[in-house]
Amino acid sequence: MKLAALAIGLASLGFAALRHSDPAEKPWAVILGGDTDGYLSPCGCTEPMSGGVRRRATATRQLAFADRTVVLDNGFFATGTSRQDELKAETMAQVLRNMDATAINYGPADARLGPGMALSLQSLSGNRLTTASVGGSSLPLQVVKGPFLIGAASKDADTVALTLRGQPIALDQAVEGLLQAADGGDKTPILILQGDQNEARRLARKFPKLALIQYRSTSDAPDKMERIGTTVLATVGEHGKSIVRLTWSGRAFTGYTALRLTPAFPDDPTVSRVFDTYLQRVALEGLLDKLPRRDGPAYAGAASCVACHAQAGKVWKLSAHAHALSTLEKGRQSRDPDCVGCHVTGLSSLNGFRSRALNPQLAFVSCESCHGPAKAHARSPKFRLPKVTESTCVTCHTTLNSPTFNFAKYWAKIRH
Amino acid sequence: MLALLAAAAIAPLFGPTLNPGVSTEFQREVLTVTDALQKGDFEGARKALAFTPTGELTIEWDDHNVPAADRPQFLAARDRALQMWANFNALIHPKIVAKGGVLKFSFEKELALNPETGIRAGYAALFGDNPAKPRLEVVIGLTRGEPAVRSRPTEVYNEIAHGVGVYYGLAESPYIGTFMGRSDLPTERENMMGYEGNAAKANLKAIDELRGRIDKRQRVTSARPHAVMDPLSFDGGDITQGDQYAFNFQLTNTGNAPLTYRIVPDCTCYTVLPGEVIQPGTSFVIHARMDSTNYSGELHHRIAVFTNDIDVPVRVMPFTIRVQPRYRLIFDAPEVKMVANGPTTLTAYLFSAADRPIKATAARVMGIPGTVTIAPWKGELADPAMKEGAKLRQGTKLTLTINPSGIVGRSALSLEVDTDDKAFGRVRTSQTVQRGIAALPGQVFFGEVSSPYTTSFLLSQPGRAFQILSMTSDSPYVKAIGSTPHGVGEYKVEVKYLGGAPVGFFNAILTVKTDDPNQPVVKVPIQAVIR
Description:
heterodimer, A: alpha/beta, six-stranded mixed sheet, B: four-stranded antiparallel sheet
């Protein structure tokens, strides 16, 4: 049997005790993140959740090369334009400032939050927003750091230009501008693209001088970097679940690390504080109380149900459903509209959950979460409640929130 | 029957079928044994078998490079990791020995940078071929990561747990957080035992099987399964959101022994039905299913197939699907609809592809008092969000009558529509409405501040000019320092935090006086977190 280097590969490592080469030749780290899509906390509600800005900050600091680091973010702070989306975007801007982001792609999704939010985000991020898609705006067309010139662009320049009150620049023209500026300044051009892999590949073929294109993807960050010619294509995937680090040797991108932000990464204390502020702002603004609610039948409360359905009540009390709101309370997210709907009973109803103090009998996922409001049934069992099927479960146990959900397995836990 | 018996009599006896997730190194070791058995070289097979892992896990522990203060904690971490292995696999009996161990752990002050990642390695492993020496030596770095930091007991635990897995022939896992999914970065958590316990047990059983063949002097044919995947990539074309989209791909075993595999999707949006062992010369169609209810747009994903094919243990099949939205519910209004006093009418439309009609059965307005009427509709309409110009569409027209008297500045209106579609029985959209002058954003937020800091916001009434007469703050810590016109009916206002406010949440109100007779005073809330 011959010697075989496994795992890390001792042959390539030169075994132990190899040290840094000349400090002058130290590489640069280019750390990619973004496409948070509003997922400030880890994506999903069940272990093992991935992503979240607190872990991302830890991982980014761990991957950084002291003063030779470029942190890029592809924007897409939130997916909508609600007040909560605004709060998320403002939180992301602060988080990125905290992570010392070099450039943030101000793209169409963030532009839809409006011109007022553009001012706020630019201020909170420490003026890190950039776009090469709009001329004559207050945002820089490019950002320089170390050997790099960074441009951020999108196909939908019109939306960004409308918000920034500037002139839209077509994508290819924006890239040409970036390359010209890079040539003139003897810099290595990097493009942060609000576009998919196909668009990135097209640009890589058309503009081979681009050193790196960061693109958007609905998949995970690939295990390896993709190259077209000398252009590296990379993505962090969706919902901010991963970050990617590339190392720049001075001539080319060499090292590639895609890190899924699993629970192995502890929360960064500073960003945790910023995230806590976000939760407090959500609570202080009473966003949960402002949720639109519709009229509907009255709820009976869990105690009424259990009074007759004792056996079912016993099963329920032992289930995670009975403690669903407590789980959020422990994570200080019990007033977060993103979460509460699936942790209480009847949040969308005028007769449903408002708060634990007001509705202690609805402050969990109870019988009526699945079977529906049951006050009429409690008064007279002749009022039958609808039959519950898997389709009821998946309103909360979506593939995103509950990735391991399996009806047969989960039903076995609460069979009653 | 005779034919069957005859076939059974001449059917070759194969070496053990290994599970997916087995390391290439272990597969090679097994093949070395079975190659010898195939030739009838039973002594050679027995010698080769000596290099395979055994349940008697004798371990040499060399911590002379470890600072004395760290040694007790590292020892405790080692014992916890070994105990975890023993707990989950009764076939494994770890024992620390001074010499003659099959596995050795030692420490170095610093390992090299991992050339793949550029990160300082925290671990390195080397298989040896000298029977007098440990079969596997694992070197743990006393520093790790980039910039390098000291390795702590948590990382020592993880590296030992991983090293034992490597010894038992398990492959690296891409999932950090399990025993075989290690990281060179500092970690805060002791990794969890995943599939590793059973996988190691299966490998030990495979070795037992080989030992039995040698003892019985049975010839076997070396098992060389070979996986061929078809297609190598996949374009699912267009589907409609909400559809359960099924797609298949085929794995063919062109090798001479059973092919085992494990499929790992990269997204929870699709599931792959578990398959079965694929016999040589046969194929198996793997069924994947995607629930597109929560997705729209172009989706790119990858299916990873782990097999026991030594040549290509992992294959990745990329696929693309374009999910067309099942319905569109849009307002026929600008992004921000300016409203005046008194009832205001808004129009929204629900429509879908002509061949998949969707009908509204009821609708309601939420967030702002109002009513909705619904009526069948056919007409030309643009859909700017989908980059579609005006074209003939068919569906439901929703006419909203709202009473905006309660609105101050900007507010969001939600429209909820019940439909006749099973998967999309209740759909929603929203519309921003504005009455009078609004601050944008609605609250000026400084973020965390500890010293003087300036930010800005817009005071806006699109298309309707007004003048700012004065701006005063109710707090001595905040001051409006100027305003500049930013278009018709819009000003950019600069606000400064002057410093000195008490630590904690800070709230203030900026009062802006205007010449607009309908809105002579605009109150702008300001918030900061003072540190």
